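Good morning N.,

You mentioned wanting to compare the apo and holo forms, so I went ahead and generated the holo version with zinc ion. This is what I fed in:
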Amino acid sequence: MSGTNQRIDGKRLWDSLMAMAEIGATPKGGVRRLTLTDVDRRGRQRFTEWCEALGLTVRVDAIGNMFARREGRDPSRKPVLFGSHLDSQPSGGKFDGALGVLAGLEAMRTLHDLNVVTEAPLELVNWTDEEGSRFGHSLMGSGVWTGVYALEKAYGLKDIDGVSVSEALDGIGYKGREKAAPFPADAYFELHIEQGPILENEGRQIGIVTGAQAQVWWDAVCTGRDSHAGTTPPSARRDALVCAARIVDLVDRMMRARGEDGRGTVGFMQVLPNSRNVIPGEVRFSVEFRHPDTAEVERLAAQFPGEAGAIARDCGIGLELTELFRYPHQPFDPACVDLVRQAAAKLGYSAREIVSGAGHDAVYVSRVVPTAMIFTPCKDGLSHNELESILPEEAEAGAQVLFEAVVARANRTL
Ligand SMILES: [Zn+2]
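and this is what came out, ligand included:
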């Protein structure tokens, strides 16, 4: 069996998505399933029960990543991995992450119903803490697994209440015995909602994700002087917020100069002392740029500090920029991407190639395992929002493409 005429069960997939969304459900129809909380534990528990009902063996590694294994016919072959994450943003949607995990579960259920054994083993993955909203570090589970973050460093990260990752893992009973390090795997596939408007605007059902954007991120601090709003004349003001505002405008102008492929954002800002009659003496904020072309991000990374520095000098304000990281464009594996392309074509879905604008576990996994991603549209491109929504037929199409790609890879001739 290679290309299949086997169909996943769209209704069963949808019912599972809705059942998972009950865990941490919010009044506005979203989900709050923060990583390594009791709500996350209940989600993991339900996932485990569903997997074990199919006879899958569930392993947990030292950072809490979960791997549900279905044996293949040939025990010497490396497993084909697929999955995503079950944690959510504090006010997240029902589909970000959950779709990839539960579509993977639906693939396992379909094979189980049909009594089909693939050549290679299959492993469905739930990565720990993709969102990063509790401990401040997104893609934690896949980052540790791929060696991007050291396990001990991740263990030491603390949430706002001072609870460490290590304590939280122990607290929910998910500090597993397995080493959090890559094991030999044949491929990794991840289905995810696009979290942007492109597929919906073009009326496409499937995004064939060819890779992820290059990025550069900074922390910025503008330092001026707190002083009285009513008594300080313009010549005596050292207003850190005015300087920061001009830098925000710079970020936007640098982005727009790159056309529709440009991305530049200041999404976080703290104004000190944040009092209406005090001229702000200090402003802390984030700056990030993304672009599909690594060379463009390199140019932005070279240009931005100088231009921001010139603005700060003009304002008489100190500017401290700390570069947090810089990633090149991460292309996915051409053979795996091609399986997604072929699956979409065979199923007659309208599809287009797309570069992922967001970070995903697949981006880290692709450093060590041949990887591809599948996107499905989401309403108004809205995500990280309780109103995030997709249609059942969109979930079904994405899951069917995932199923085809995974089965084709697991049955390929070596
Ligand atoms: Zn996600």
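The radius of gyration is 23 Å.

Happy to go through it together on a call whenever suits you.

Best,
F.
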